[in-house]
């Protein structure tokens, strides 16, 4: 199985993720000195280095929410910071940038400048709404002026990535180092992560692993998730230790790290030596990671709803929505998944052109598997285009042949295609030559009728119509019939309809009386039938 590992190629994405999380750090005005815990179980160091989710766990926010919310309304600055963190992260309350900003501003008013760092990160967090990095930079700069480590870190990342203003990697790294020196956990994590590959900092895997261990022990779930992968795969200088990896995975997953939830799900989906498979729990974890917007989990669950896997019922609408959420983040398999739904006609009309468009976007976004589907849909569309051309050519040829046959009939000749043909209509049913306009009230043009019975009125015992194919023409309401082209005898038979035959769409129905003249003798006859 392939677990999610933080690599150099993830730097930009990781930087954006960490700014959303690490910016939600609340710290005390004191510069990191230890102090007795306050009524919410937090001390000065906690407020200096930890993220909002960690602080909320330490304050037992789940069971004490009403108490903390009441304290915030009464102006307690730390309670306001906790409420701001809860709304920013959606912990026990619905996520809301407006509420996060409101409570953070109240904390600043109450004397905690750390609320500026939280406001900064709330504006930078794209999962709280459209980000405004210009405003975020301004607020972070104010926090930096007050020595806020969260503001130092968040502004450093924005400078590294060029968000909200010019890129300045040197200045950005300086700010992150300053935040790390103040104990900020995410700043330390960022430097350790980069030290594995030497990205903008000196390469030092040994120090990086040591730092990751210290961060994991200090309850940083992202560090726990990173170490879990390292222990599981025996990477970054660590020996394989599946049981330790599982403990770290579970801790990080419980604390809301989507990568850990996804990776733990992968392990449980199939099981490994020493770890029993549990597909139900695995897909519950995938679902949680997908709810958090983790692209690989979004695609995993999209496929489950597409195919009915993981005890999930088939739900193509939900599958489409999940694929599109992954695609919105630029994740190649998300584009490819949308393409497959269009290609298969699952929940949407089958459309190879749309499928090809999405597959090409998936390939451009780095999903090499999309190449197969690009080629497949290009072939399908080329074949469809060729069939369309061939059909048009055949139709054109058929129109020209029909025109020639009608001309032959008008000239008194039966087209060679019809000579010897077996027609299915009875004697009292007309079969129109292809191309005749059945909807016309003029009933013009030549037609062919087959007589399979000689039972047309015997006006004279020596005269009768024999089975065969005859030429028939409607002219001004008269039906004129002649002997087959194989016979030299001339039979001048005229039928005068009492009322015209009834025509419905492509079906000619007869139910009429007519007068006819055969060899100069008059007769009346009732004719019924139909022919399509």
Structure overview:
With 532 residues, this protein is an alpha+beta fold. The protein has helices at residues 11-22, 44-49, 52-58, 61-73, 77-89, 97-109, 114-124, 133-145, 149-161, 169-181, 185-195, 205-217, 221-233, 242-254, 258-270, 279-291, 295-307, 316-328, 332-344, 352-364, 370-410, and strands spanning 431-432, 446-451, 468-475, 478-482, 493-497, 502-504, 507-518, 521-531. It has 21 helices and eight strands. Strands 1, 2, 3, 4, 5, 6, 7 and 8 form an eight-stranded antiparallel beta sheet that branches. Helix 14 crosses helix 15 and helix 15 packs antiparallel against helix 16 (279-291). The two termini are 63 Å apart. Mean pLDDT is 77; it is low at 6-35, 408-521 and 527-532.
Q: Helical segment tally?
A: 21
Q: What is the β-strand count? A: 8
**Rg, alpha carbons:** 41 Å
* Major sheet description: 8 strands, antiparallel
Indicate the proportion of strand residues.
5-15%
Structural class given helices, strands, pairing?
alpha+beta
Shape: elongated
Helix content: 40-55%
Poorly predicted runs: 6-35, 408-521, 527-532
Keywords:
10% strand, 532 residues, alpha+beta, disordered C terminus
Describe the protein's topology:
Layout: H1 11-22, H2 44-49, H3 52-58, H4 61-73, H5 77-89, H6 97-109, H7 114-124, H8 133-145, H9 149-161, H10 169-181, H11 185-195, H12 205-217, H13 221-233, H14 242-254, H15 258-270, H16 279-291, H17 295-307, H18 316-328, H19 332-344, H20 352-364, H21 370-410, E1 431-432, E2 446-451, E3 468-475, E4 478-482, E5 493-497, E6 502-504, E7 507-518, E8 521-531
Helix pairs in contact: 1-9, 1-11, 3-5, 4-5, 5-6, 5-7, 6-7, 7-8, 7-9, 8-9, 9-10, 10-11, 11-12, 12-13, 13-14, 14-15, 15-16, 16-17, 17-18, 17-19, 18-19, 19-20, 20-21
């Amino acid at each position: 199985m392939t677990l999610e590992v933080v690599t150099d190629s993830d730097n930009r994405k990781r930087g954006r993720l960490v700014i959303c999380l690490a910016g939600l750090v609340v710290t005390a005005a004191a510069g990191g000195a230890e102090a007795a815990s306050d009524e919410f179980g937090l001390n000065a160091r906690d407020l200096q280095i930890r993220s909002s989710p960690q602080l909320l766990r330490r304050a037992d926010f789940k069971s004490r929410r009403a108490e903390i919310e009441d304290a915030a309304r009464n102006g307690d600055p730390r309670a306001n910071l906790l409420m701001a963190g809860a709304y920013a992260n959606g912990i026990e309350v619905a996520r809301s940038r407006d509420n996060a900003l409101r409570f953070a501003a109240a904390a600043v008013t109450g004397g905690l400048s750390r609320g500026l760092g939280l406001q900064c990160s709330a504006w930078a967090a794209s999962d709280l709404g459209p980000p405004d990095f210009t405003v975020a930079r301004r607020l972070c700069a104010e926090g930096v002026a007050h020595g806020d480590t969260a503001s130092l870190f968040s502004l450093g990342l924005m400078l590294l990535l060029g968000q909200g203003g010019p890129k300045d990697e040197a200045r950005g790294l300086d700010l992150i180092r300053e935040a790390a020196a103040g104990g900020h956990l995410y700043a330390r994590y960022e430097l350790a992560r980069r030290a594995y590959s030497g990205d903008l900092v000196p390469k030092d895997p040994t120090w990086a692993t040591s730092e990751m261990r210290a961060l994991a022990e200090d309850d940083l779930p992202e560090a726990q998730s990173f170490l879990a992968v390292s222990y599981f795969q025996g990477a970054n200088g660590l020996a394989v230790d599946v049981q330790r990896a599982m403990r770290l995975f579970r801790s990080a997953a419980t604390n809301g790290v989507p990568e850990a939830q996804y990776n733990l799900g992968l392990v449980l989906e199939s099981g490994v030596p020493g770890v029993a498979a549990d597909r139900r729990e695995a897909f519950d974890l995938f679902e949680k990671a997908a709810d958090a917007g983790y692209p690989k989990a979004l695609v995993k669950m999209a496929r489950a709803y597409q195919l009915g896997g993981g005890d999930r019922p088939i739900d193509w609408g939900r599958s489409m929505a999940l694929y599109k959420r992954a695609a919105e983040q630029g994740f190649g398999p998300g584009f490819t998944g949308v393409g497959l739904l269009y290609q298969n006609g699952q929940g949407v009309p089958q459309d190879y052109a749309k499928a090809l468009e999405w597959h090409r976007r998936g390939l451009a976004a780095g999903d090499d598997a999309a190449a197969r589907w690009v080629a497949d849909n290009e072939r399908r569309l080329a074949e469809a285009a060729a069939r369309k051309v061939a059909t048009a050519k055949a139709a054109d040829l058929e129109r020209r042949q029909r025109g020639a046959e009608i001309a032959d009939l008008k000239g008194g000749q039966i087209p060679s295609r019809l000579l010897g043909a077996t027609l299915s209509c009875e004697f009292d049913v007309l079969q129109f030559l292809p191309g005749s306009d059945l909807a016309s009230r003029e009933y013009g043009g030549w037609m062919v009728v087959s007589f399979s019975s000689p039972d047309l009125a015997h006006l004279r015992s020596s005269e009768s119509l024999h089975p065969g194919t005859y030429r028939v023409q409607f002219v001004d309401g008269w039906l004129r019939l002649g002997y087959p082209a194989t016979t030299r005898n001339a039979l001048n038979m005229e039928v005068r309809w009492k009322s015209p035959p009834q025509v419905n769409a492509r079906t000619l129905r007869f139910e009429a009386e007519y007068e006819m003249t055969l060899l100069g003798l008059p007769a009346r006859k009732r004719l019924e039938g139909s022919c399509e």
